[in-house]
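Structure tokens
________________
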Amino acid sequence: MSTHTHEAALARARALYEETFGPIPEGTPVLAVHAPGRSEISGNHTDHEGGRVIAGALDVSIDGIAVATDNLTVSAVDENFPLFSLELDDLSVHQDELESSAALVRGMAAKLAETGRTPQGFNFASVCTVPAGGGLSSSAAIEAAYGRVMEALWEGPAIEAVELAKMSQYVENNYFGKPCGLMDQASVCLGGLAYMDFEVPTEPKTAKLDFDFDAAGYALCLVKVGSDHADLTSEYAAIPGEMQAIAAEFGKQRLCEVDPADFNARVPELRQQFGDRAVLRAIHYWYEVELVDQRWDALQSGDIERFLDLTRKSGSSSASFLQNVSVGDVQKQHAMVALALAEHVLCGRGATRIHGGGFGGTIQCFVPLDVLDTFKEHMDGWLGEGSCRHYAITEEGAYAAWL
């Protein structure tokens, strides 16, 4: 996000704050917070199985203004969502708050309290340019934003990016009710283009790379397919559920702990016990983690054509083995149609794949710059104005700063 765009977002957030809560008195400490969205570049549904991923923080974000109060009430408002309030005197999981913003506030407050901080109320106004339900991790950005606000407003030790990411993942799993891996939160908190290895979930290994897709001749485009995946939590949850059921058959918790040779020796039995889809999803896991490593090597060496070839293989595995492109009614295959239309325009150039959790949301396309305008025109014409957006990787992870 450019400095001008960031300043404009903060100005809008401040205007919303004063419209909602009243003018900020002269001399009152004011905190600004920023948390980007993210794009999964490689590693479709590998993080929750202890695998590897590549992800990039994007030039869309949550930007907000926070001011401390003298009570235990958190009140928050966003340009796109109404004001809500909750009390911080009870930081336990509330079943009636599942999949709500209140759950994220309460959960992050509980995790920040574990660092020795004393919770205190605050007012918060935000502007969100991360498309909700589009697979760009708006929930992870919200978690990180609240975490950075609480870190700054409540006295306590500094929190490193990966530690904040782990707190955020816990909140999404337990307070929000979505069984995600750690990739989304880690990318949002780290910023930049990052490789992550989750074999040891408490201490993920990370590395960053300065890589500009535009400079390599390709635009990173995400295309909204016309269906929101926010109501498909059960379909999303079935993926790690089936993978981990296979792992449990070998006495393990995650597929990263299972020897592929042991899996190969029992394929007929596993098909009979768990069904073909679970077996296919396990096969996808091992195939995809190898593609992550190969694509990271290609990026490090600047070999964009090899990266794109491997991206196409990743997309094929997600569609055929992982099976997270379409769900339910065969007459409504939004993501599959979007992928087919993108391929139709690209004519074998660039690369396309399902993005993020799948089952709707967005597809990811690497588009040659010389056909970018044509590509956007066609995709917007077919799927709706503004469906296709050209994104850039941004180096800034989630942070808060006093104004």
